[in-house]
Write a structure and sequence with these properties.
about 575 residues, 6-stranded mixed β-sheet, 7-stranded mixed β-sheet, Deoxyribonuclease I, Chain A, Recoverin, domain 1, membrane, EF_hand_dom, alpha+beta
């Protein structure tokens, strides 16, 4: 009988990438795995085809196949259709791709294969391979100096990925082939970049298969992984991966906000495995605190206070953790999806606490409105694009305001925004807050009533009684029990943003380190992928997530800074 075979041809066209140091399975040369062409069962073409004689016939000796037997029409057609034609097509596609460099999608030619898990997946990516130098960890090949890298990425949980805009209930989580293929590609990119620190948001902790795939793949590559689910069984959460070659995890904490959005945060206290060289005779093993979080999406402007409160809790916990563990000053890196842009209250709050946006520092962008929309990192479910993903850095001894003062200014900023939203100017806002007070001042009861009217109190996610009381104490500067117009004006005209790092200077690591100095980090570079988002454009052919991937590279520097708070 003739042997039956089902040819399977996998052609994967992707962007132009440099060769990787491992061979393609079917070719004796180095290719990126995604450019390999796998043609199975070709060996059948080299076998003789024999037909057994009928049982009642006389068996004759096997004859050598004639030339005509190789060129009979059925055999020639099958060989050309199933083997040579796909092979020629694949060669043409690769040649065309190498010339044009255009993005493309995976094409799966399944032949007669009946596998239920095969699906076409659009997985376009950016043209260039990101951060080749970060794959060497501490040693930056382009700069010849020690460095670390950090990647933050909201990978869009399949339970939230909509597949049909007309039917919002259709989610990617219902189609295993779709979410599995997309997340495998995410894992491959993370392993290729090989950042020292990886912070993921919207990690689908509710799916054991996906969790196992990430933990097994990252674990095999040398990472320690830590996951944390959101409260109330939301299904998604956080995953932080620390490469054991570069950092040792000294301690970790889990933060549960227990608020309206069921949000959480991870805190990891790590120490560098390889000491950073200070000079020829001295080196230090640098300690760092890393935080990974995903703030609430502002479905309503009144929820801005919730997001601000989440950040306030993180910073409070940072202070408490360092104080209770009697830790010296050390760099703090905050990663995540902050669900707010550079013009928002959270951004300004963090800046007042001495944090800088690594991407904006690397590209020399300021905090001005002119630079607020130079880049984007997210297209939300409403179709709006904005920059919401940040890697924040705060170095030791960076000048910063007292946390309570920064919190009060941020909260008053939200109050001012809510009042301006209903077209209240300064004088009108004062009159609104004063309400029916007999004198030209604001009483505490009128203040509380005004906050309730703008939805900042009286709701489950609003300001608490104690927080409202603390704000009143900040507003009543002279402590006489009322807020007059001058005190109100001080709040209304409060200068939010100040350059908190002006008193700090960066020094070469070639000199000694003094007692009042510390080791911090300088931002060497930061890149968003796909590249179009760096120009404020969201590419339509990008489907890996609804967020861009942000990676930053830091190098250690000696800091000489003032320790005084503002």
């Amino acid at each position: 009988m003739r042997k039956h075979w089902n040819p399977i041809v996998l052609i994967h066209r992707t962007n132009t990438r440099p060769p990787l140091p491992f061979p393609c399975p079917d070719f004796n040369q180095s290719f990126h795995p995604s450019t390999c062409i796998l043609i199975k069962n070709l060996d059948h073409m080299n076998q003789d085809i024999t037909v057994p004689p009928p049982s009642n016939s006389v068996h004759k000796p096997k004859l050598r196949p004639t030339l005509n037997s190789y060129f009979n029409k059925p055999t020639l057609f099958k060989a050309f259709f199933f083997c040579f034609l796909p092979f020629l097509i694949s060669l043409f596609l690769i040649a065309y791709h190498n010339q044009s460099g255009k993005n493309s999608e995976m094409v799966l030619l399944a032949g007669f294969c009946n596998g239920s898990d095969i699906a076409n997946v659009d997985s376009s990516e950016s043209k260039s391979v990101p951060f080749q130098e970060t794959r060497t960890g501490h040693a930056c090949s382009t700069m010849g100096e020690p460095c670390i890298s950090c990647t933050t990425f909201n990978i869009l949980a399949p339970i939230y990925k909509r597949l049909d805009q007309q039917n919002q209930s259709v989610r990617e989580s219902d189609f295993r082939a779709f979410w599995l293929a997309r997340n495998k590609k995410i894992v491959n990119w993370l392993l290729y970049e090989r950042s020292s620190i990886i912070c993921l948001q919207e990690f689908w902790v509710g799916n054991e298969e996906l969790v196992h795939m990430y933990e097994e793949s990252l674990g095999a590559a040398g990472y320690d992984t830590f996951k944390l689910a959101r409260t109330n069984n939301r299904g998604d959460g956080l995953l932080t991966a620390i490469h054991k070659e570069y950092f040792k995890v000294l301690n970790r904490r889990e933060l549960f906000f227990n608020d309206f959005g069921d949000r959480v945060a991870q805190l990891l206290h790590v120490q560098s495995v390889a000491p950073f060289s200070i000079n020829q005779n001295e080196s230090v093993q640098q300690e760092i605190i890393i935080v990974n979080t995903h703030l609430l999406f502002p479905h309503d402007s009144s929820l801005s206070i919730v997001r601000l409160h989440q950040v306030y809790q993180i910073l409070q916990y940072l202070e408490t953790y360092q104080r209770e563990n009697k830790l010296s000053q050390m760099p703090v890196i905050l990663c995540g999806d902050w669900n707010g842009s550079k013009r928002g209250h959270v951004y300004k709050f963090l800046r007042s606490q001495g944090f800088v946006s690594s991407y904006d520092i690397a590209h020399e962008y300021t905090d001005s409105d002119a630079d607020a929309h130079k880049w984007v990192s997210h297209r939300n479910h409403r179709g709006n694009i904005c920059g919401v993903d940040f890697i924040w850095l705060r170095n030791p001894h960076n000048s910063q305001k007292l946390l309570k003062i920064s919190w009060a200014e941020a909260a008053f900023g939200i109050i001012k925004y809510q009042l301006k939203k209903v077209s209240l100017a300064e004088n009108d806002a004062f009159a609104f807050l004063r309400a029916d007070s007999s004198g030209n001042h604001i009483t505490y009861s009128a203040f509380c009533d005004a906050l309730r009217q703008v939805n900042l109190t009286g709701l489950s996610h609003g300001l608490s009684f104690q927080e409202t009381k603390d704000l009143w104490v900040q507003a009543d500067a002279d402590g006489n029990g009322v807020v007059d117009y001058e005190e109100f004006k001080r709040i209304w005209d409060a200068t939010w943003l100040q350059h908190m790092d002006e008193d700090c200077s960066l020094e070469d690591l070639n000199e000694g380190i003094a007692e009042d100095e510390a080791i911090g980090f300088a931002v060497k570079k930061a890149v968003l992928f796909p590249h179009e988002v760096e120009k404020g454009i969201w590419p339509e052919n990008y489907s890996l997530s609804d967020h861009a991937r942000l990676t930053a590279v830091f190098s250690p520097v000696r800091l000489r800074c003032s320790k005084q708070s503002l």
